[in-house]
C-alpha cells in the first residue's frame, strides 16, 4: 500500500424520482461507490464509481477492484500520468473503479494547489454547451407528464429503441417543440434504424445516439451514409483506441467517464476525436453530483452535453456543478468542488 495515501469507500444507494426505462430494461435503484483518498496531511480527494451491469460491473465488483487498486496508489498524487498507468496494470478491466480513483486523485491535486479542475486544465467555464435532459421510455401519458416536468431544460433526449418508437416520439411532440435528440442504446438493427430516419426527420430530431449494437461498425456506417441527422457512437466507443475505426462511420463520439476509466483517458478521447474531425459529446450514467461534476469539468472542451444523471435522482447526496435550465455552472472551489449534503 502507498505510504502517502489512504483509501476508503462507502457504497451508496440512490433512487430515481421515476422508474428509468431504456431499450435494455427498467431500473429505479442504483448502488454507487464513494471513494476517498487521504494524504499524509489529511487532505482528502473524492471520486465516484458508477458501475453498469451492461459492462459486467456492480458495486461488489467495484469494491473488489478497489482492493486490487489500493497497492498501486502513487506515493506522489501529482504524478498523475504514472499513477494512471499503474492503476491500469493493477486492474485493466474495472473502468468505473479506476475512474473513481482517478477523480479522487485529480480532486486531491486541485485541492492541494487551491484551484478547481477546470482551471488546472486551462479551460473557460463559459464555453460549456447546454445540457440535455433525458426522458426514459414510458406510456404516452407518462411521457407527456415527464416532458412537462422537464420544462426548465432547453433540450430533451428521448430514449428509443423499441417497436413503440413512433408512439413515443409523437407523444413527446404533442407537448413540446424543443430540440430533440434520441438514444436507441443499441436497440435497432441497421435496417430498423434506416427505416426510422423519415420519422426522426419529421420529428425534428437533431442527433441519433448509438442506433445499432456496439460491435457493428459496418452497421453504424450504413446508418451514417443514409442519415442526414448526425450519428454519435456511445457503446461502440469506450476508450481512445476505439475512435480511429469509427472515423467515417459516425459523426461523433460520446465519452462516459464510467466506461473510459479515467479523466486522463477522457482528455485523450477528446484529442483523438478532434484529430479525426469527429464531434465530441459527454454523457453519463444515473450518477450523483459527485460523478456528474467530474464530467462537467470537461464540458468547455465539448460540443454536446448530456449530464442529467443527478437531476433524475429523488435525493442527491452531494452538491457540485449546478445545471440550471441546462446551463452548467462549474464550481469555483478547489478540485472537483463537491461537498456532501
Describe this structure in words.
- By secondary structure, the chain is of the alpha/beta class.
- 33% of the residues lie in helices and 22% in strands.
- It is built from eleven helices and 15 strands.
- Strand 6, helix 7 and strand 7 form a beta-alpha-beta unit.
- Helix 5 packs across helix 6.
- The protein is globular, with a radius of gyration of 19 Å.
- The two termini are 31 Å apart.
- The model has no long low-confidence stretch (mean pLDDT 96).
- β-strand percent reads 15-25%
CATH-defined fold name of the largest domain: TIM Barrel
SSE series:
EEEHHHHEHEHEHEHEEHHEHEEEEE
Query: Spans with pLDDT under 50 lasting ≥5 residues?
Result: none
Per CATH, the architecture of the largest domain is Alpha-Beta Barrel
Envelope shape: globular
CATH class of the largest domain: Alpha Beta
Rg over C-alpha atoms, rounded to the nearest angstrom: 19 Å
Task: For the record, give the distance between the C-alpha atoms at the N and C termini, rounded to a whole number.
Answer: 31 Å
Task: Write out the strand line-up for the largest beta sheet, numbering strands in chain order.
Answer: 4-5-6-7-8-9-10-11
* Mean pLDDT rating: 96
* Number of helical segments with 4 or more residues: 11
Number of domains: 2
CATH homologous superfamily assignment of the largest domain: Enolase-like C-terminal domain
Largest sheet: 8 strands, parallel
